[in-house]
Amino acid sequence: MVNFILLILIYTGVYALMAIGQNLITGYLGLLSLTQAGFFAIGSYVTAILTTTYGVNFWVSVPLAALLSGFFGLLIGLPTLRLKGDYLAIATLGFGEIVRNILNNWDKVTKGPMGIQRIPMVSIFGMKVSPYTKWGFLALVWVFVVVFYVIFERITQSRIGRAFEAIREDEIAASSMGINTTVYKVWGFVLGASVAGIAGSLQAVFILSVTPSVFTFMVSIMVLCMVVLGGMGNFLAVILGAFIIQFISYFPQLVGLSNVIPPQFKQVLFGLILVIMMIWRPQGILGRQTRGAPGLLRKGGER
Questions:
Q1: What is each CA distance from 281 to 9, 152, 230, 244, in whole angstroms?
Q2: pTM, two decimal places
C-alpha cells in the first residue's frame, strides 16, 4: 500500500511538471495546445539515448533535454501561432503524433517500437537513487516540482507574465500597446516545452526504459485535464489537479478492483469529472490566481 501511494506521488510530480508548462501556455497565454506529450517524449529519449549510448551523466542530459524540447517548442510555435482555438489544438496535436511516429520508425537511433532499455539510475554524489525504493526518487521529483513552481511563479509575476495575461485577455489591445505578441507566444511555448522535456527525463530514469507507445495524445489530454480541473492560471492548482487525476488513474489498483473495472473506465471518469466541473465550477477547484499576495497566499477567483 505504501509503495503504491509513493508511486502515485511520484507520477503526480512528473505530470505536475508538464501541467506547470501547460498552464503557462493555456492558463496565462490562452493558447489551446495539445503537444505536451511530444515534448515529454523528446525529453525522455534525449536522456535515454545520451545515458545508454554515450554514457552521459543524467545531470548533464537534463539541461540538454530541456534545450532540445525548447528548441522544438520554438519550431512548432513559430508556424502555428497564427492559428487560434481549435485550429491551434489540431496543429499541435499533429506535432505530438509526428514525434511518436518518428520514434516508432527511426530504428537506428530510437530502437523503434521496442524502445530503449537499461537506462542507468540517477546518481547523486556517488549514491544511486533507486526507483525501486521510491523514497529517494520521490524527493528528487518533488525538488524539481518546487524549483519550477517557484521559477514559473516569478516569471508570471514579472513583466513577462503581465504581457502573457494581456495577450490572453485581448491580443489586439496588447499589440496596440506595444507588446510583441509573437515573441511572447513563442517564449511561452519554449518555456512550457522545456519543463515538459525535464519531466520526460525524470520519467526515463524512473521507468529505466522508454517506448513510443507511452507518449500518446491521451497524455496531452490528461495534462490539459489537470490544468482545467485545478484552475487555469494557478500553478498550485494544477499540481492539485495532477494529484487528483493520478489518484483516479490508480484508484482501481489501490482498492484491488483492477480486475473488475475495465481500463477504459478512467477515461469515462475523467470526462464525467470535467463535465461536472464545467457546470459546477468552470474556473477550476482553486480558480485563477489574483495579483497582490505571494502565490501560496492568493485566493482563487473566477476568470
A1: 25, 25, 10, 16
A2: 0.91
**What is the structure's pLDDT at 296?**
45
- Per-residue cell: 227: 490544468
Tell me the C-alpha distance between 65 and 41, whole Å: 10
d(CA 194, CA 66): 4
Give the N- to C-terminal CA distance of the chain in Å, as an integer: 39
What are the domain boundaries of the chain? 2-217
Bridge-based pairing state of the strands 127-129 and 122-124: antiparallel
Look at the alpha carbons of 115, 221, 299, 172 in this order and tell me if their dihedral is positive or negative.
positive
Please name every residue paired with 210 in a beta bridge, in sequence order, or none if there are none: 116
Q: What is the mean pLDDT of residues 276-280?
A: 83
Residue 201: strand, helix, or coil: helix
Torsions phi, psi of 288, nearest 5?
-75, 145
Read off the pLDDT of residues 44-92 as tens digits, 9 standing for 90 and up.
Answer: 999 999 999 999 999 999 999 999 999 999 988 888 777 877 888 888 9
Burial class of 124 by CB neighbour count within 10 A (0 to 12, 13 to 18, 19+) = exposed
Q: Distance between CA 103 and CA 22 in Å, rounded?
A: 23
Listed in order, strand segments (DSSP E) in 125-229 are 127-129
Query: For all residues of the chain together, what is the average pLDDT?
Result: 89
**Closest C-alpha among 11, 202, 56, 210 to residue 118:** 210
Q: Contacts by 163-171 with C-beta closer than 8 Å and gap 24+?
A: 164/24, 164/28, 164/29, 164/188, 165/28, 165/233, 167/29, 167/30, 168/28, 168/29, 168/30, 169/30
Please write the tens of the pLDDT for every residue from 196-229.
Answer: 999 999 999 999 999 999 999 889 989 998 999 9
